[in-house]
Structure formats: C-alpha cells, structure tokens
Protein 1
Amino acid sequence: MRIPLSSPDITDHEIKRVCDVLRSGVLSLGPCTEEFEEKFAEYIGTRFAIAVSSGTSALHLAVKAIGITPGAEVITTSFSFVASTNCFLYEGAFPVFLDIDPYTLNLDPGAILRFLVHGCRREGTRIVNLATGRNVEAILPVHVFGLPCDMEPICHIARQFGLHVIEDACEALGASIRGRSVGTFGEVAAFAFYPNKQITTGEGGMLVTNNERIAEECRSRRNQGRATNQNWLQHERLGYNYRLSDIHSALGVAQLERLSELLHSRQQVAQAYNRALSPLCRSLKLPIDLPDASRSWFVYVVQLLGNSADRDKLIAELNADGISSKAYFPAIHLQPYIYDLLAKKREPLPNTEHAAATCIALPFFSRMTDAQVEYVSQSLGRMLSRIPARVLATAS
Ligand SMILES: *Cc1c(COP(=O)(O)O)cnc(C)c1O
C-alpha cells in the first residue's frame, strides 16, 4: 500500500464542466470565470472576488493594490509557505517575522503588540522600526493549516497603529471566526486552488475585497493593466498576465458546488485521525480546535514531542512503510535567501523554530479511507514506541 500526502477529489461532474468549455471554443476570459467569481464572493461574503492564476499572484496583486512602499516592512509569520513572504519581496518590501503561538501555530497578536509598542516609535502617522529605521506598513497574517488567526485583535492593533491588513487565507477556504468567514477581516485576502487545497483548479487563486478601488485595480493588473471597459490595447498601468482561464474556472465552479461535501469529508478524515492517534498523545501533539473559530481542514499536521532528528527519522520510516509525510513547514526566516536578505541579523523565533523542527504532515485528502488512517496511525504508533523516553522527555 502506498498512501500519498494529498490527492485531489475530481468527479465526472468536474470533468463534464471542463469538457463543456473545451467544446465551446472560448478558453479564456469566458463566462465560467465570471460565474466562479460571483459564486465565490457570495460564499465568502465580500462584494468582490477576482480570479487569478495562483494564490501567489492574488497575494502579489493585493500588495500592489494596498500600495506597500519599496523599502517598507510587513509584519508576518515565518511559519508559513514562502509565498506569503515572497509576495511583498517582489515589491522591495522587507519582512518583520514575529513569533507564533505554540498551540495555534498562528501569528501571536501579543507578539505584534509588543513589537509595535517596544520595538517601534511613531513619527507623525508613520511607525518606524527602531532596529532597522524602516517604516512598518502592514500586517500579513496567515491562517496556517486552515485554523483561523485571532483576527479581531490583529485588526484592532492594525487600526490603532494605522497599518494595512492583508489576509493569506490560501489554506483556509471554509474556515470562520464566530460565523464570519476568513477573508472578510483584512482589506483584501487571497485564496488558492493548487491540487492539495480544499478545492482545486489545477493552478489558480482568488482575491477578495469589499473595496471597489482595490477590486478595479486588481482586475486591471491581472490583465496587463488594461482599463476594464476599454480598448483591448489600451494599458493604464503596469500589469501582468495573472488571468485564470475559463478551463480552470469551470473546474473551480464545479468544485465550489461540491465544497460542503468536500469540507465534510475532510473533517471526517481528521476526526478519524484524532481518534486513532489520541492514545499516542504522550509522544505527539495533535491539531487543536478553538472554541470560537471553525477550522477548515487543509492538512493534518502533528507535532512530535521530541527533536528534529527523531522527526526526520520518523519521516524516513513512514516512507519505508509506503506512507508519504513531510516536514512541514520549514521556517521561512531560515531559508538561505531570506537569511541573506535580513543581513544575517535575525531575532530568535523560538516557537516558530521549534514547530518547524518537529511538525509532520501526514497523508490527508477527502477520500482517505478509515483503513488508510488506521494503517498510518498504527505505523506511527509502532515507530514512536521505539523512540527512547529519554528523548521525548526533552520536549518543551
Ligand atoms: C498554497 C499557499 C499559497 C498560494 O500558493 P500557490 O501555489 O501560488 O497557489 C500562499 N500561501 C500559503 C500559506 C499557501 O499555503
């Protein structure tokens, strides 16, 4: 038995929708993209949704439209997929990585407040980082593994300090805080549809906002800076080809129609893992739930109460049993190009580094069977029973 890390859930329904587009002769800028955008905006509860070629391009357009200044700084998390930092590096901005909460693995609002109060000074309306002399302009929280960040305090802090908020909701389609969908808290938010996400278009992303100016600007920039209702060869601003084709959009519409079914199946698999792994709770930290937020299951990640050598050995042993797993996430601030960018002067991020050294993503997809969950859990149990207790006792 070989169990993959993830696997898309595509039915005849999706195949038919895609084939209809192929037969129609209109392969890009057709009716499916508009339908996908309308239905997506309605589901999230924002006025506008703009379909783009990837989650990364959605984030990049968000940074452009917000108007982050080259040389400015953005507060964000290092425990994420690199795209959440790359999106503002493209515009010449710098990251300020603050530490995560060790339980939620999300950016800690307390750390943001401490940094702004003790690590910055106000100069008029500007917030200047004392350590670098650069202006801090925005906060970019990431809903890591589909668990919502604590958005209410983050938005409150942002308002107090005059900072923009861009939400990276690429892992969290379907998640909410007190009934309010992620992606509606920031001025602008990004979702993504790579094949391992809750819904897929192969490649694709969506930018959502309630701000009409941001929506218009992003619509124009994704299509080579064209004016939205004008001559095809009239370009008003610097633009990109970040369009989502009608073929991809048809897949997106069909997946969105099945979203509640897909989210339900993912939740069932997560619950099966929770039950099967709970006897191992002395060696593994399982994903947590929050009382006032509803997680959308993106991946199933456990944290080994041991060290990174044990973790890497475990991944190799699981692989020998036919089980794909991954060290997930490696910390962004330790990637060589980022380390160089920060002039090798980095603040310690103990919670981030500990999580990056001990997290393991287990196989997780909507059609995973109980037998597969059982097989993974038993393999894991056998391996953990062989790791000496002395090592596990050193866990923080
Ligand atoms: C998937 C993902 C993205 C976007 O990825 P693309 O591959 O560009 O669609 C951005 N941020 C996070 C945290 C992600 O997991």
Protein 2
Amino acid sequence: MSRTKTDTDENLLFIVEIVSHSSFPDYQLRLTQSSLCDATVKQRSGFLDISPSRSLFFWFFESRNDPGNAPLMLWLNGGPGCSSIASGLLFEHGPCFIADEGNSTIRNSHSWNEVVNIIYLDSPIGTGFSHSTDGSKVDTLADVAVDVYAFMQVFLNHFSEYSAAPFHIAGESWGGHYVPTVANYIFQRNKELIYAPRRGILKINLSSVILANGLTEPATQFDSIPHYACDPVAAPYPPLSPDRLQCRQLNISRPTCVRMIEACYKYQTKLVCNAATDFCWPSMMTVAPMVNKNPYDLRRSCDEDATVCYIELDWVTKYMNDPQVKKSLGAHEEQVFQTCNMDVNKGFYYQGQAMHNSAALLPELVNNGVRLLAYAGDTDMVCNFIGIERWMERLEHNFHKEFASSRSQLWTMKSGRAVGEFRSAGAGHKHAGNVTFVKIWDGGHMAPHDQPEAALDMITKWVKDSTFSGH
Ligand SMILES: *[C@@H]1O[C@H](CO)[C@@H](O)[C@H](O)[C@H]1NC(C)=O
Ligand SMILES: *[C@@H]1O[C@H](CO)[C@@H](O)[C@H](O)[C@H]1NC(C)=O
Ligand SMILES: *[C@@H]1O[C@H](CO)[C@@H](O)[C@H](O)[C@H]1NC(C)=O
Ligand SMILES: *[C@@H]1O[C@H](CO)[C@@H](O)[C@H](O)[C@H]1NC(C)=O
C-alpha cells in the first residue's frame, strides 16, 4: 500500500510517499526524495515508523557508479546518541560535506557512494531526527539490534532492487558495540528462516562487518591505553612522556580497570558493568584533555568553541535545523536536530552497556563466511589502534592462527603512495581477507574525515575483496 504526494518548492523537489508492510503491521515508511547533498544520484530519506509513536530517520544515496550492481552498506555512528547524518554523512564520507558555517554543503569527491549504495541511519531512538512521542527509549545494545533489523527488513522489502546485493554493516566508535550485536542478530534471524520461513521476511545477505575506531572489546582496549599514551615508540603522537606522573597513574589504574571489565564480561549485570565504567572512564580516559589535546586526534587541540572538538559538527546542527532542509528530508518542522543526544548517551552507560564484550559475537559470523574488517586511524586516543589490533589478534575463530601470525604490511593506493598498514587472514595474494585489520596513518577517530582518499581506497578494496598490498 502506498500513497504518493508531490510537493514542489521553488528550488527543492521532493516527493512524499507513505508505505506500509504486511509483515510488520506497526511499521511504516514515510519517504521523500530530495536533491540536497548530491543531485547526481538517486536518494531517499525519511522515517521508518516502528510503532505508532517511534520512528527512525535515514538518508540513503545510490552509488555514483553502477548502482544496480553496487553492494549495500549501512553506516552507524556511535556516541551513543550521535547522528550518522551529522558525522558519517556530512563530516566523514558522505556525498557532501557541511560547509559555509552550516549554510550549505560541498561535494565530496571521495564519498563512499562512489562504490556502494549507502544508508545513513540515525539509531537508536532519540538520535538525530529519530524519535519517540510516548517517552519510550532504547538504551541497550540488544534493543538497537531489534530496531535496526526491523528497519532493514522494511527497507529491503520496499527497495527490493537492493536486497540481493552483498550487505555490509559498518559502525564507528560505539558502533563497535552496535555492529557486532546487529550483525549477530541478523545472522540468527537468517538461520531461523532456513527452518521456518516467514512470508515477507527476507534473508539479509550479510557479507561483512566493518568496525571503525570501534569500542568492541573494552578489557583489551582499556589495557592498551597506557601503552598508547606513554610509549614513544608504539604510538605516533604519544601525548605524555613516559616519566610523567599521569603515566604512572595510568599504570596503577590499568590492572584494576581490566579486572573490573573482565568481571562485567563474566557476570553481565548492570551493577558489575557500571562499576567498571565508573572506575575506568575517569581514571583511563581523561589523559588527552589534561594535556590540552583533542582526544579524537592527538595532532590537534580540541576546538574549545565546539560541542565535541569539531566546529563543523555544530554547523551540521544549524544546517539540519533549517526549515527548508527539514522539509525536503521529510522531517517535521517542529523537530529539533541534535548532533549528539546526551540523554541517549547516559541511558546506555546507565544500563551498563559500555563494557560489554561485543567481540564475542563475531567468531560465529567469521566462521560462517561473514568477513570482518576493523580499521583504526592511528592518531585517535579514544579507541586507539593498539587496543583494536590486540583484540583482533586474541579473538578465537577459524582464522585465528593465521591472523595472529600475520605480519603487518604496507597498504598502498593506486598512485603508489603508502597510506597505512594492514594485516589479514584468508587473503592470499589477491583478496582483502576474511579477517583484516587496517591502520590509517594520520587519521583520527573519524579517520575518513582526515584521510578521505585513503578511506575510499580502503572501502573500495574491502567491498571488491581485492588486495591491500597491490596497486
Ligand atoms: C551564513 O549565513 C548567515 C545568515 O544568512 C550569514 O550571516 C553568514 O555570513 C553566512 N556564513 C557564511 C560563511 O557564508
Ligand atoms: C548475496 O551476495 C553474494 C555476493 O556476496 C551473491 O553472490 C549472492 O547471490 C547473494 N545472495 C542472495 C540470496 O541474493
Ligand atoms: C608502565 O608499565 C609498563 C609495562 O608494564 C612499563 O614498561 C612502564 O615503564 C610503566 N611506566 C610507568 C611510568 O610506570
Ligand atoms: C573467506 O572469504 C572468501 C572471499 O574472499 C569467501 O569466499 C570464503 O567463503 C571465506 N571463507 C570462509 C571460511 O568463511
């Protein structure tokens, strides 16, 4: 069932369409088709209603090249509570970047939609334009998975032209928790469908999981902080010299923090997990601000005027709250866009979700043909590359031995320029690998913002499954 209404403005053309789905009676899509950001490709944006009172907002772009055969990617920013439109789309790798203090956007020639059809989804409820009207909220990883799965089902049922394409799910920062949870949930539902097919429910063609400077296995990642912050050889921009008092303090806090996170892994209760968060965050995560550095990128100082170190993210808030922009994207006039919603953020921390071991959800996927890429910009202190590479080394699955004994190799672009390093298992000489770690040189927490050309090269090689070493 679908109702279409065309609404033309002086300079913005968009179509409003309302769609419901027989398998999910409570779900509905309200779509518009705008020409903002990238007028050269087909795009859709709007809401998926998950109930009469809860809606998720997304902005989708077809690939600039051969969209009929391009893979499909879902992108999720973290926070929790930070908008994928604000950061991923308008600041990192979308078809356009925010510009002119938020008055306009400029084309990004290294957009990931050069190679993929891409959905930027504001999840969970409360993030970006995604909202509830009855006060209900999502504050656990498990509930994120349920909502994102439902979104994908409705999306792929409606836009069935993308349902056979390989599906890649990517997330940054807290996305390192979301993505394994969502991907594993998709995997389990796919498995059930083999024995109990349900009309209208699709098998989602889960092809790979991509973790971008993610928080995924906190014990190993927090354990690495003193090493990253203090060892002048291990990290490219250590903020502290090893003899600093803070380094000794980090070293003293480290074993307690790790034990508390391991207790969270074991008992998985809010009480135990919250205790780990309450101890580890203040004792291990406050180094960069103390030395007046941007924790997301140690090459820079934090922009004091900005909400989260980058003034561009405040420009996004201005842009997305423009009445014309809201109208053409299908958002309600009275809705207020926040780049990061701190209430959502606090909810997840309060529920003890931060210290979960989301890496434990990955081996089952890896052993069943889902490829795994974790990448890390090397100047990020929040989710540093040492911790990410280490949990990748420790993770037990069918490729574990090969990955653990793999050596770091130079990653070069077509031009011959080396832009980082990679390690992989299952790659042979031709492939990107089944389990791969990539380090992006001179990139921060939002590495594609800092190294757009390298990031596009990486994502192209990954989805085309071609080697990082050749050019
Ligand atoms: C953005 O628009 C505002 C209001 O129209 C204007 O004052 C400001 O100068 C503009 N900024 C830029 C960089 O164009
Ligand atoms: C899923 O994607 C793969 C490529 O990764 C393709 O070969 C296959 O046909 C797709 N499967 C379905 C059920 O569409
Ligand atoms: C911190 O611990 C590491 C390894 O345990 C050690 O090499 C380093 O010297 C210690 N640093 C300080 C300042 O205590
Ligand atoms: C490893 O990845 C390749 C694609 O390069 C895929 O064909 C294969 O099934 C994967 N192997 C396993 C064991 O999952």
Protein 3
Amino acid sequence: MDKKNHYFDYASTTPLDKRVFEAMKPFFTDVFGNPSSLYSIGQEAKKAMDIAIKKITDILGCKPEEFIFTASATESNNLALLGIARANKKLGNKIIISNVEHKSILTASQALAKEGYEIVGLPINKSGLVNPAELAKLLDKKTILVSVIYADSETGTIQPIKKLGKVIAESRRKHNRATPYFHTDASQAANFLDINANNLGVDLMTLSAPKIYGPKGTGGLYLRHKIAIEPLIYGGGQQHNIRPGTENVPGIVGFGEAIEIALKDKSKEQTRLEKLRNKLEVGILEKIDKVFVNGNQSGRLPNFSNLSILGVDGETLLLYLDAQGIIVNTGSACNSRTSEPSYILGAFGRSDEYIRGSIRFTLGRKTTGKDVDYVLKNLPPIVKKLRGMSSPKKL
Ligand SMILES: *Cc1c(COP(=O)(O)O)cnc(C)c1O
C-alpha cells in the first residue's frame, strides 16, 4: 500500500517553502536583535524587515507604512472590523458583511453587534455571488464599513470585488463622506488573483502567510493611508501604534519571501492546478453518482473542488480517506470541532443533506497527477462501502 500522504487541504494551511525557511533561519539565531534597537544587530533586523515590507507592499501597490503585520488572518480580520468600527463610531454604526465570510469576520461582527453596531448581512445570489446592485441598496450615510471576502474558504468562489468597490466609492461621493471603507479578506485569493489594492478599490485587505507557503503565526492587514483605526492592543509604539509589540522578524522576512515566490509562480501554478483540479472533479463525477459541485463553477479559485457526495457523511468519509493517506477537509475546516452544518454552504443554498455529504479538496504546489490518480482509484470504493453501510431510514 502507498504510505505516502496525498495532501488535499491547502486551504487549511500550506507547507513552509524551503526557500522561505532558509531566508528566515538567520533571524532566529544570529540576527536576533530587536528591530527597535539602535545597535547594529537591531538595525540589521530592521533592515531585513524593511526589505520584506517592501516586497509585500510593492505587490499590493501601496506604501510600506500602509501594511501592518499581525499574528494571523484571524487577527487581521478582527483588527479590520473592531478597529474601524470603534474609530469611526461618530460617522455611523452600520456594517455590512457578506453571508460567506470566514468565521473570524462573522464572530467579530457578532461582538460588534453587542457593542451596539448594526450588522447587516449581504446575501449571495444563485451563482454564489454578491450582487453589486444589492449592496448599493443597503448602503447609506451611516454605513462605515463593508467587508466581502475575495474568495471564500469553502468553495473558492471569487467575489466581484472591483465592482463592489465602485459601488462603495459611488456611495461615498453621493454622501460626500470618507466612509464606508471597504475591507476584503484575501487569505485564499492571494495565491492566484490580483491583490493590488488600488486595482481592487479596497481600503483594507487581510493576508495570511501560512496560506501562501509562508510561516504560521504571521498575518497582515493592508490599511489605506490616513484611515482612522483603533488598535486591539496597546504598547510601545511599533507599527505606527496600530499593532505594537516587538515585531516577529523571522515571520516577516518569511512573509516577504513567500509572497514574492507566490507572485513569480502565479500564472504557471494557476494553469497547472486548474488542469489537475478539473481532472479530479471530472473523474469523481464520472465514477460516482449523486455527486454535486459546490460553488460557482465559472468563477472559482483553480485549486478548489468542494463536492457534495449524497448518502455519505463528510466527516466519516474524511476519516476513511485519511486511513488511505488521502487528506481532505469537510465543508469548513474551522467548524470541524463544533460539527455544526456549514453556514457558507447554507448560504450557497445547499440543504443539510448536501452539506453533510460535503468534502473539500484543495490542491497546491506539491499536488501531482499521481495524487489525483490515487484519489480516483481509492475514493469510489470507499463511497460505495459507506453508502452500503448507512441504513436507508437514516438518510
Ligand atoms: C484561513 C483563513 C483565515 C484564518 O486564518 P488563521 O490563520 O486561522 O487566522 C481567514 N480567512 C480566510 C479566507 C482563510 O482562508
């Protein structure tokens, strides 16, 4: 039996790229100085950090001071929502978020609702897209923030961020205000899509290093110049007082390296992974009946395949696949502890039966045709077995 792992969960996390690891190494041991210190090993660390920031901000098309490092995309999303809401309270209390946001946006907005903010959900249409005209209807003078994910983490469906940005800019003009600000979570999208902030028309954008083959414990938030934001933590003035605390120098160096590599390989990987994903998906649809694709099939990230396999339980299937060395996830990786049905697939109009039978394959840099062949060989007999086991009345 093939004991090698066939990893199909790149949306949960990616392996650290060896080149990134090499670039980070000296900053754990030799160049360990505090970047705020004036002596040379401090300044050497500062210089490396500045180079990394420039690599990132060149890709975002912004100034170095417009990017804030955090410890995770979760923190970035919290900073964006709580920070903008609290700093701009005088301008209004309404916040609009789409119905397919990551749990960190959803729960941060629930916390804001307790503080008295009005949180308005923006539904997606039949194709899984936020409709710019629907957003236009919801925008008013007291809306201070809109948050719409660039590509969701369950189906990879790509939202029309540019168009939404135009609608938001129009609302600002109409009301002659600086608000609403526009935030997008680009954690999944950054591997494949344009993340130039001005092209997209966003004011804030969340990034995550461990989703782009960078180090864990490293996230970031693009924050347009001069936008008022309240920090989540207080300290010694680092990062313009927006996110103080001694910087994670190895992490930041790794982030810079990782994003540069991702950009370089982007179009090649896009084509390669799309072909592999399609081979996987078409193969599964051919070999197994009652399988349905979740998400917008004409506008998804190239590495996502979220499938509802009716008559099986996604989590049971996950465990059977794991026993064969195939690593996948169910609807939502982050919900697996709570085992509640995915609200994102629910927003896509899927009933509980479809959600229960959903598994998510996400491909990445190390995925090969052999991995896909291995799944196509091993998945059908497992599904057959599980379908045979489940009692008809339970279905
Ligand atoms: C993974 C992910 C996050 C959260 O990342 P953490 O590293 O767990 O903080 C947020 N948003 C999206 C879209 C993600 O895919």
